[in-house]
Each structure stands twice: as C-alpha cells, then as structure tokens.
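Sanity check. The docking grid for pyridoxal-5'-phosphate depends on where the pocket ends up, so I'm generating a full predicted complex first rather than guessing from homology. Inputs follow.
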Amino acid sequence: MKVPFMDLSHLSNELRHELQAAVERVLTSGRYILGSEVSALEQEVPAYCGTRSGVAVGNGTDALVLSLYALGVGRGDEVITSPFTFFATVEAILQVGAVPVFADVDPHTFTITAQTVESRITNRTKAILPVHIFGLMADMPGILQLAKAYRLLVLEDACQAIGATWEGNGVGTCGNAATLSFFPTKNLGGCGDGGMVLTQDEELAQRLRRLRVHGSVQKYVHEECGWNSRLDEIQAAVLRVKLRKLDEWTEQRRSLARRYDEGLRDLPLKVPFAPAQARHVYHLYTIVTEPRDALKAALAEKGIETQVYYPLPMHLQPALRGFGYQRGDFPVAEYLAEHCLSLPLYPWLGTDQQDHVIESISRFSATAES
Ligand SMILES: *Cc1c(COP(=O)(O)O)cnc(C)c1O
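Predicted complex below; grid placement will be based on this.
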C-alpha cells in the first residue's frame, strides 16, 4: 500500500466542478486583479477567523514583509522570533532591515513562550513574532501580556494555522496582525501562491492596501514606495470555494490526529501536544522520536512517505552566518530539528492508509526494542 505524504490531486477531483465554475466566472468577468473575488475573500476569511479586516497579498512571505513594514519595523529594530520555523519568517525580518533575535521553543508546543522570550528583550526590541507551527497556536495570552509590559508589537505568523484558536480566540484577533499563506499545501491552499494579513486595526489594513499596489490609493498617484503584491482574482475565486470546506476538512484532520494519538500511544515516541485550551488544526502531524532517521527509512520501505520539518534551525542557516549564532544556542530547536518526523495527514487520508502507518511504526518499534 502506498501512502503519499500529501495528495493534492484528490482535492481537485472532489471540487472539480465548483472550481471550474469559479475560474470560468473570472474568465467571463475579464477582471483579473483586485476585483470582486478578492473583495469577497477579504470579507469571508476575516469573518471566518473573527477579525475585522483582511488584506490579500501575493503570498505568505509578502504578508509578513508588508506587515512588519506597515507596523514600522525597520533598520536596527530587533524582532524576537522562533528558530524552529520555515525560513520565510526570518527572511521577512531581514527584508525590512531588522535583526532577527531568537528565543528557544517550548519542547511540548514547539513555539516560543513568554518565558523564553523575556530574557531576549533589549532596548532595541520592537516586536515579537510567534509562529503557530504545525497548526498549534503559541500561548498568546502570555506573549501579549509580555508585549504590553515592554510596549512591543505582536505579529503572528499564522501561515500554518488558519482556524486555530487559543481559549476560543482565533489568529489575528489579539495581536497587531497575523499572516496567512494560501500556498497549495496549506490548510486553505490555492492553485498557486497567495497570502493575507488579518488585523483588528482598520488603519493598518488601509496602509497595507496601498503598500501592496505600489503605495498608491489613487491610480498613478503614489503616497509612498510600496510593492507589487496582490492576490489574483482566479486564486481568490478558488480559495472562496475551498473556504466553504475548511471547517469540515479541519475536523477531519483533528479526528485523524486523534486516531494517530490512540494508535501510537504506547510507543517510544512523542505525539503532538494539544493543550486543552487550544484548537490545534494539524497542518502537520509531527512526532518526536530518537531513531528518527531509521524510522523514516523503515516507513519508506513500506511505501509510506514522511517529511522532516525542519532539518536546520534558523540560527544555523548559512544566510544568518553574520549574526554569530552557534550550535548549542537553542538546544530545544536543535533537538527537534534532529528528531522530528511529520506523518501523512490530510482530510482525505484513508483510515486503511492510516492503519498501515500506525502498524508499520508499531512493528518498527518492536524490532528496535528487541
Ligand atoms: C508557508 C509559510 C510561510 C510562507 O508562506 P508562502 O505563502 O509560501 O510565502 C511563512 N511562514 C510559515 C510558518 C509557513 O509555513
């Protein structure tokens, strides 16, 4: 039996007719940039997430860059973030000329916490950028309290966490802004690139709306230097179709995750931690195990594809050489990079496929122990 890590073609089959109709609608309209589909998506996604505004942009990375810029983060400012994330988080900080400062992650949630962040604050710190990695929100009440005490901005990297909540509050509802990615493999993914900034701050949203079109409100009049970073109408139309399925898909992810939890419970590995106050949306189902590489190889032999997110922490990236970080600086992030393994998990993963994964891991553990 083959168990691919991800299978996006299934999704297109399930929604083929609706997606075709949506694309057709855009083709017929003849309007491809910043038209009614993007406007509608900018109503629907914030409504789903519980925020006042949403500004659609070209991708999740641009959502981070434009947010930092619009919040006034720039040259010389320090931004505290996670070393255990996708590179785009750090890239955005560097692109606005700011300095990425890392705080280690919690070994259970894999996110930064008020505790790990506080000792990294200096008088140059301008913002905290928690990453809701794998679909679990960071402890936002703790981070927001710290931000308030030190007068810092909070930007959430929610690119993996649309629909996630903490004590019932969704991403982007409490901090200054949150970013989403609509990259095809994300929980809400388009048929191409896309992203959005969520915020409760309508003034910030207005600034972002002009930054994404060359700093312009009125055509050919430019208030400031901006970017060309827009979500196109076809992507917006596709995303609107998929958004209607998102809750159902998220519940499927959550119930498959519970099935994994059950099936893997007694094995020598750590299943994802999901605190009671959190709604984990399981963008990825990531276990931690000492013989990670051996397990990955054993599963590959059984036709099961797994992935390592992420094998090299941010402070050890070649692009950050100049910052003087060393191995040993963030031991939890480094440990996770060496022992994390993401298992196949998507809404349409069959329970027979999942049972094959569980049985193969059990068998591997039994042989490894004997
Ligand atoms: C996907 C992702 C991004 C970047 O999103 P793109 O749409 O690919 O630019 C940023 N941060 C995290 C944590 C992500 O997973």
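Relevant for the grid: Residues 59-61, 85-86, 88-89, 131, 157, 159-160, 181, 183, 193, 195 surround pyridoxal-5'-phosphate (CB under 6 Å).
Also worth noting: Residues 286 and 342 are 4 Å apart (CA to CA).
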